[in-house]
Amino acid sequence: MAAADLFYTEGIRAVGINRLLEEAQAPIMSLYRIFGSKEGLVEEFLLDKDRRVRALFEREVERLADTPRERVLAMFDVLGQLIAGSDYRGCTFINVAVEMADTEHPFVRIAVAHKQFVRETLSRYLAEAGLRETEPLATQLLMLLDGVFVSAQMHTNHEQTALQGRKAAEVLVDAALAAEGVAG
């Protein structure tokens, strides 16, 4: 979808209606009939991205990892795959939250819901690994994932960035498992 590429690479506010219509080669009435407004189109872009990223992580984590501990760490491996692309421009959801700069904005609420899903997924894997108390570790791991996303925007060695994030996650997870007397 041309709009998705534009929103991702240039930002939501930077892309006007005329540019969207030109890139999509669509009449303005099609945009309004299908999405109601540019905001409706952006919302659909974000919801679609959320669905696709969730499915990608679920599929790839299950493919890469056999144990709950490995699944937590595989989240960083999948992230490494995402940021390896030459067209990488950061995490869509972090970018939207920064661009909108209003925690009550509907687009930011979609971004927050996406991050909440990631945190809950990490928490589930940690519980499956035997941790009784998955917080605050799930939140710390989410912060680490987000840090990898942002760091990869600023540095060119994406593979190394993801690897360092994975190594830090491994230290945190292993320490939490050891503290609760759970075999890793």
TrEMBL record:
It comes from Nocardioides immobilis. The lineage of its organism: Bacteria, Bacillati, Actinomycetota, Actinomycetes, Propionibacteriales. Keywords: DNA-binding, Transcription, Transcription regulation. This is TetR/AcrR family transcriptional regulator. The keyword Transcription regulation applies. Residues 16-35 bind DNA. Gene3D superfamilies: Tetracycline Repressor, domain 2. PANTHER family: HTH-TYPE TRANSCRIPTIONAL REGULATOR YJDC, TRANSCRIPTIONAL REGULATORY PROTEIN. GO terms for molecular function: DNA binding. Residues 1-53 form the HTH tetR-type domain.
